[in-house]
Amino acid sequence: MGNCFSDVEGGKQAVGGAQQRPNSIATTTNNNGGHNDAVEFFFRSRGIQPLFTQIESSLSASNLLDRDITSKSDPMAVVYAKKRDGKLEELGRTEVVLNSLNPAWIEKVIVAFQFEIVQPLVFHVYDVDSKYHNIPVKTLKLNDQEFLGEATCVLSEIVAKQTRSLTLNLNNKNGHTSLRNLGALTIHAEETVSSRSCVEMVVHCSHLDNKDLFSKSDPFLRISRIVESGGSVPICKTEVVKDNLNPIWKPICLSIQQFGSKDNPLIIECFDFNSSGNHVLIGKLQKSVADLEKLHIERSGANLTLPSPHHGHEKVLKGQLFVDQFCEKQHYSFLDYISSGFELNFMVAVDFTASNGNPWNPDSLHYIDPSGCLNSYQRAIMEVGDVIQFYDSNRLFPAWGFGGRTIDGTTSHCFNLNGSTGAFEVEGVEGIMDAYARALHNVALAGPTLFGPVINTAAQIAGQSISYNSSKYFFLLIITDGVITDLQETKDALVRASDLPLSILIVGVGGADFREMEVLDADNGRRLESSTGRVATRDIVQFVPMRDVHSGQISVVQALLEELPGQFLAYMWSRDIKPSPLDAASTSA
C-alpha cells in the first residue's frame, strides 16, 4: 500500500491521501480490494455506499422485436453481474417503456467498478405484459415476461471508451446467435458525482503525552478504514512533526473511494515516530468523516484514548484532536483520464533462469501441462493481461525474457520473447502466451537473476513516450522464481524510473524465500534509495508471492492491481496532467 517509509526522511513524509499538487507528490491509494458479498451487505444494510467507484449506466435499445399483436413491445432491461461460478447477480432494472421498439430508458442502474478484476455484465431485455403494468418493476417475475434478447460485455470495455458508450447486438439467451435481427442495446457509463468527491482537512493535536526521554515526541497520524471483519485497512498517513506535543499537520485529502461514506467509521491513531520503525502509540480515537466535520463546525476537540490494562476499557487522555479546516471538493478520477483517451500499456518480462527447473519435467515451474492446466507463469500473464488489455487500444504488448541463453549461445538479461531480433511486441494476451511457449523450445535456462536490464528497457520506452505522447502510462509485469542478484542496480533503475509514467508489478512464483524482494515494495516501510543517495519520488513497485495470494480468496490480480489506479493518479497529479477539456467540462457538470 505504500503506507509508510522507514528511512528517516522518507518515513516522515505524508502518504496515502488524495493530496494534490503543488509541492508534494500525490500518492492516493485505492484500497478497495476484491468484490466481496459480505462487505457489500455490511455497508448496504447500514445505508452506506460500497467502497468502489460508482458507475451510473444508462441504457437504450434499437430495432427490438415486436412481440405484441395490437401494439408495439413494452420493453424493460435488467442488468446482471456474472459471478466466477457463472451465476448471475441482478444489479438493477429499468422502468418499462410503453409501445416502443427503440426505447431510451430513464432509470439508471448503478454498477460498482473495480479496476483490478474483470467484471462480466449480462443484459436481458423483456417485453412486459400489459397486465403487469401497475406492478413495480422490482417485483415482476421475469419468467412471466417475453424475452427479447441478451447482450454481454465486460465493464472495462465500456469505461475505457472515450465516448463511455458501447453498442452490442442482442442475441438469444446464453449468447446463442439468432437467425433474425433481435436489435441492439447501447450502454453509456458515467461516474457518479460522489465517486469524484474528496474531503480536505487541516487537523492538529494539543497536549499530547510525551513518549521520548530526552526530547519531545515526533507525532504523526495514521488513518484507517474499518472493514466488516472488525479489522482495519490503513488509507492515509500524515507527515511527521518533529519535537512537538501540539502538532499541526499539512492538509489531509481523502477520496470517497478510501473512506466509502461520510458515516463510515475511521480509526485515527497518533504515533511517536522512531527511525527503527517501532513507532509508539500516543493515543487513538474512532470518528467518521461526518464526525470530523462536526468537530470543525463546533470548534471542539475529541480526546484521544489508549487501551487500558483492564479488559474492555479505554483510558481517556488529556490530548485532543481538532479539525481546523474542512471542505469537500471534486477531483479528477482514474476514469476521467481513461475516458478522455489515456491508455495503459502492458509489458511483461519472464524469468528464464535455471532455478525454474527443466521445462520438460513436470516439477518445473515452466512445465506446460498437455491437459491445459496453466503453470504459475501462464496464470500471472493471463490474470493480469485480461484486466489491462481493455485499456490499450492496439493491444500490442512488449514481451521479454531474462536470464536465458538465446539461440546464438549468449546469456541475455533482456531478450525478445518472440525470438525476433527487432520487434519486441506481440499481439494480445494470447500472443504473449504463444511467444512464451515457443521460447521454452528455443531458449536454454541459465542465470543469474537480473532485473536491471529489463527495467531500464521498459523505462526507456516510457521515457520516450513523454516526448511524443503524454497520454500513455506503462505497466511492467515481472514474473520470477528467485531473489535477484543485482539488488542495488535494480534499486538504481527503480529510483530513476520513479519519475516516469511507469508502474512495475512483480510476481514471485515457486517456493523461494522472497523476503529480500520485499525491500523493492514500499509496503514494507522502506522507500527506495539509489547508490548516489537519491530517494524515489514515488512508490512504483508492487510485489507479491503467488503462493500467498492463491492460498486464500484474493486472486493475484487483485493483490497486484489494486494500487495501480492510485500510482497512475499520483503521476498525473504530480505533473499537473489533466484529462481533456471536454471531459473536464463533464466533471464540473
From TrEMBL:
Subcellular location: Cell membrane
Gene3D superfamilies: C2 domain
Residues of the C2 domain: 35-168, 181-306
Region: Disordered, residue numbers: 1-32
BP GO terms, sorted: cellular response to calcium ion; defense response
Topology with respect to the bilayer: Lipid-anchor
InterPro entries membership: C2_dom (IPR000008), C2_domain_sf (IPR035892), C2B_Copine (IPR037768), Copine (IPR045052), Copine_C (IPR010734), VWF_A (IPR002035), vWFA_dom_sf (IPR036465)
Biased composition (Polar residues): 20-32
GO CC annotation: plasma membrane
Any one Gene Ontology molecular-function term assigned to this protein's record: metal ion binding
Highest taxon, organism lineage: Eukaryota
SMART domains: C2, VWA
SUPFAM superfamilies associated with the record: C2 domain (Calcium/lipid-binding domain, CaLB), vWA-like
Entry keywords, A to Z: Calcium, Cell membrane, Lipoprotein, Membrane, Metal-binding, Plant defense, Repeat
Main location: membrane
PANTHER family cross-referenced by the UniProt entry: COPINE (PTHR10857), PROTEIN BONZAI 3 (PTHR10857:SF120)
Family: Belongs to the copine family.
Protein name per UniProt: C2 domain-containing protein
Organism: Quercus rubra (Northern red oak)
